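Lab notebook, page 48
Experiment: co-folding of the full assembly
Goal: obtain a model of how the components sit together before planning crosslinking
Operator: M.T.
Materials (sequences as entered):
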Amino acid sequence: MSQRQLHLNLNFIGAGTHSGAWRWPGNRADAFLDPDYLVEVAKIAERGTFDAIFLPDRPAHPDRSGTGPFPALEPTLVLATIAAATRHIGLIATVSTSYNEPYNIARRIATLDHLSRGRAGVNLITSADLPSAANFGLDAVPEHAQRYRRAIEFAQVLQALWESWGEGALIADAQSGKFIEHDKVRPIHHEGEFFRVRGPLNLPRSPQDKPVLVQAGGSDDGLELAAAHAELVFTAAHTLDDAQAYATKLRQRAQALGRSPNAIAILPGLVTIIGSTEAEAREREAALWELSSLEQGLKWLGGILQVDASGFDLDQPLPAGIPVPVNGSTTFARNLLAKAYQPGVTLRQLLRTRGGGANNHRAIVGTPEQIADDIIEWFSSGAIDGFNLMPIILPSGLEDFVDHVVPILRHRGVFRHEYEGTTLRAHLGAPSI
Amino acid sequence: MSQRQLHLNLNFIGAGTHSGAWRWPGNRADAFLDPDYLVEVAKIAERGTFDAIFLPDRPAHPDRSGTGPFPALEPTLVLATIAAATRHIGLIATVSTSYNEPYNIARRIATLDHLSRGRAGVNLITSADLPSAANFGLDAVPEHAQRYRRAIEFAQVLQALWESWGEGALIADAQSGKFIEHDKVRPIHHEGEFFRVRGPLNLPRSPQDKPVLVQAGGSDDGLELAAAHAELVFTAAHTLDDAQAYATKLRQRAQALGRSPNAIAILPGLVTIIGSTEAEAREREAALWELSSLEQGLKWLGGILQVDASGFDLDQPLPAGIPVPVNGSTTFARNLLAKAYQPGVTLRQLLRTRGGGANNHRAIVGTPEQIADDIIEWFSSGAIDGFNLMPIILPSGLEDFVDHVVPILRHRGVFRHEYEGTTLRAHLGAPSI
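Observation: model returned without errors.
Model output:
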């Protein structure tokens, strides 16, 4: 296949991206805790030959704003469960670099790579929220630049530990009794601002040599992390111009650091609401909207903007003059404010464009053809390499995508008909460096 | 069934307890990294209606002393893999309290409890070795008492986080849209010597309410941790008198802390070498001995006693005057020195009684009848509640136990014929407190 190929991940969130999805008729409201459900959804994505399952995470309870499923089960364990029931699909776990030790994470992700025979990836985030900080002994969220310095050093330690077992270091020759080529297993002696790690890893080199490193978040600090270490980036882009501008900046920066500009796959989030007609898709969206909570929407908005939004009037625009918070999720806040301050937009309308107030990504509503057209338009621009798909409702919204959108993408020659390899790197076309 | 029942765990170590086991004809030397092998062994233990799989751990590379499989894959992920392929057997992961945050571990173990539908347990260790310390920024192992103060506080935080979701807190009622009863989910506001954790856990109460807490290690500090928090204790006892003395001390201490003296199941380690005749068992042991490394044995001994043993003469006794190290694995060192300083014991003989120098537990060599007799004798004394079994070789040594020893134990009325419940607590007869 010579044509450039699209990459698709499933961003697997509870019952779907929409905050009303868990109440959808036929869905089990507590399915987000059920291993059979997790495996069922993963198998649908594997049937659609997706590159990977992507699990978000946040190491804190959503508190009183939580009115639906949230990232509860720990991602690496969920992915080990999914690995046991699948053969091909990649497995990407989100991990906070602020509240973990790199030795433990290097080991857990390499373990997942062994257990899945080469399908593991890790998405490094810095955790911008206070409730997470308070679970790890802190009174305040560490400042943005410091969090990212730690994340970059964290990524360096992961890479060094994954390289600490040279090729052929595990001999395991019963005849001679030689188990390890000790000279090929080397301490890393890392000493940095945040970590001192002697190494080596206590785990032989994993099937991918190194699991895939993923980064999410579009601040300048985040871009620096992505340019230096990421092989896949999960971005938020609401216009093709934005996506193009980000891609140019990221690829230039990667090149300046000596990497190939094409070494990084860029996948924006994309919320999909599918119907057999556009009207049906819009009806589905409206029906979900009826099941979602405006109260939660306001709390979510308050969280992103770091203001108390509980008293805001839903039929008025967002009060003027709210700045991008200094120490939060910069990209999300910037995108949200840009939309909120468009003329005549009420809070109710703003929340509604956000799938019930539970996400920060671009949404498309339409038929399989419309959705495939949109995907191919963005992909063909060259700005992006695919999407982190966020079906508005699971499993049905994913089934619709796999059964009706994927065949169009295949027919147009931009997406695989079957897996050509068994590792995440093979799906991404990313050699381990 | 009214008779008091025996509890059996499989202490799952690579290719078996013996350091030569990975070289045994027919065994694959790299099987310790293979998920199919892990599942195969677990299924044999489940066929034998064992209470649980117990995975040891050490977050550091064994360095140059490693001449065989070692705890490489991270235990909680291995157990998630096993959970997906089994229905009944309990799943106990060893975790270092010195090099983890309690919020992360509370969440991972509760996640395992959800994914396995109530079969999770966690064995808290303090990690007495320098290589582990050096992977987490330290130049020295924290002193013994401090490690255990941290472990006790760690256990308190785990318990509090597991209790932070009250019964019925997860509503998940699609009809009303009520997802969480927020008043039943409470922060823990823990502030101690080592940890400050706000909570609550970001995970609804798990099937066992609280996963099972396990402790291993017999120092006074360890006993304090066990008496206060453990529901299962993995001990090392070489004589029934020792086991009796330890049990009396532990049960008295638990009672003084207001717990029932029978709330703790005591399971010493037991290495088994099985043959259809005693001579066959001894031949098997001798054949394994031929496959093991004396060099590794000396390094292992040096590690326990914190001396350089590489120059010691194997045909002489251990040099006189070596003390129990102040800051190490106290029980292991004490047991080892007691045996080493018996009159006339050479180093070669000492290492040989240790299954090739790779373990610290009592070993029995014999027929299924002899092994069953021994187990029942210890069990009937009342000092112990069962064993953490360490087959000298896997999977064949475990198959021998399940096919030939388990039927005798069942016939004599001390061991279950089938599982009566589906949770680890049910197997242990341990209500969640």
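Interpretation: Residues 58 and 71 of chain A are 6 Å apart (CA to CA).
Next step: discuss with group before ordering constructs.
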